[in-house]
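Question: does this match?
>
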Amino acid sequence: MSERPDEPLTAPSYTSRSHGFAHPGPGRYDVSTMQTTAPTTWEDVLRMPDDGNRYEFIGGRLYMTPAPVIRHHRVSERLQSALRQALGAPGHGEVFYAPVLVEFPGTRDRVQPDVFFVSNERRGIIGEKSVTGAPDLVVEILSPSTAHRDRGVKLDLYARCGVREYWIVDPEEDVVDVWRFGRTPGRERFPGELPVRLGNERVGVIDLAEVFSRHLDIWEESS
């Protein structure tokens, strides 16, 4: 399945009016204001019915991400499960997955990460409709349509806005690049076992052979 390249649409103007999800709930559309052309501002997105795509606003530009392919979904699901076991089940905080809106105060930027974690220490950023503030951990899974964005503008955004750790997951190379920000910044690549940290404390490990397993993909297709 081919995907369209990552082509941002310039948003010439922006006025913040909403702090909710990218799309309103069922039965709340005003037909007279529904979008009939490609969206170029966040307000355009808010007027649209859910079209199955994810929209993000970064650095004054609107980005659209098509629905992920099946392998992307499976890798995401396995990572979510592993993070819940290492961080959620012991009561360290809460694990979220797309589509949940993350807004960064003091900026116009709004993203919908594939997976992210908010610790109890930062629990105050979790609102009724969105998360307003930097999660402790953000995970993005690469695809042809998002790789340039994930490794570029999103890396810069997360580093600037207070995210403690950023995982870039490559489901083709079966590796995870871990970026740590703050007092001891650094980058490491993990091809086998991926450590899970809460601050500076290691609280678990993820078996990447299982996360990236193509044998499990085949089993899931046949079950």
